[in-house]
Design goal:
single chain, 216 residues, mainly alpha, 3-stranded antiparallel β-sheet, 7 helices
Length: 216
């Protein structure tokens, strides 16, 4: 019955059904019936598919069971994927607001997960597991990268570069290093910009020489 996987997905995509909430077994069963009904209406050119449909059309128990199991699994996977996106969006929003409120990106992931657990009905209890911690970590990591891009936050800069001269590494949390001297931070970025400008000028000179040589 796996030959119908794409067809099942297409029928589900067109079905006017809300996958944003956890479906009950009854709702899944109704959708399975709908998919089977829609599939039986189709006239497949593929002989293999037509042959497989004979069992469904003739109500062969084994064919129906195989098809229903595959469809049910596909529906539940689709439903879970939708729920996961919604749950993770809620977690992401909470983490961002929590970090902004605390003005501290150095909070440990476990601390934030503990705060998440106190928020009743924010997310399903199954999300307070390793996957939640991994997701929270990714949110924090992305925020830290953004803060590094913006150069500073609360008098600190978050850096994951190693061996940068002139910068004192004073603290290390989750593999990220934090620096306190804002003057040194400014100098670091100034040096980075100067180096970039120097390279740009060098490239301009090379390009000019190339153009001159081409014109001769």
């Amino acid at each position: 019955m796996k030959v119908f996987e794409k067809d099942i997905e297409n029928i589900l995509r067109e079905a006017n059904y809300d996958f944003d909430k956890k479906l009950t077994e009854t709702e899944v069963s109704k959708l399975v019936d709908l998919v089977r009904s829609e599939l039986l209406k189709k006239n497949f050119i593929d002989k293999h598919k037509r042959k497989k449909l004979v069992g469904l059309k003739n109500n062969v128990p084994l064919s129906i069971m195989q098809f229903d199991n595959l469809t049910s699994k596909t529906i539940k996977l689709k439903n879970n994927a939708y729920i996961k996106k919604i749950e993770e969006a809620k977690i992401g929003e909470f983490v961002i607001q929590f970090l902004i409120k605390n003005k501290d990106l150095r909070l440990k992931t476990t601390t934030i997960v503990e705060e998440l657990k106190k928020q009743k009905n924010l997310v399903h209890k199954d999300y307070y597991n390793l996957r939640t911690r991994t997701y929270v970590y990714s949110v924090i990591s992305n925020l830290r990268k953004q803060m590094e891009k913006d150069n500073f936050v609360n008098g600190y800069i978050v850096s994951k570069h190693n061996g940068n001269p002139g910068i004192d590494k004073v603290k290390k949390v989750d593999g990220w290093e934090y620096t306190e001297s804002f003057i040194k931070i400014e100098n670091y970025f100034k040096n980075e910009i100067d180096e970039y400008n120097s390279r740009a000028k060098s490239m301009e000179k090379k390009l000019l020489k190339f153009k001159e040589a081409k014109e001769i």
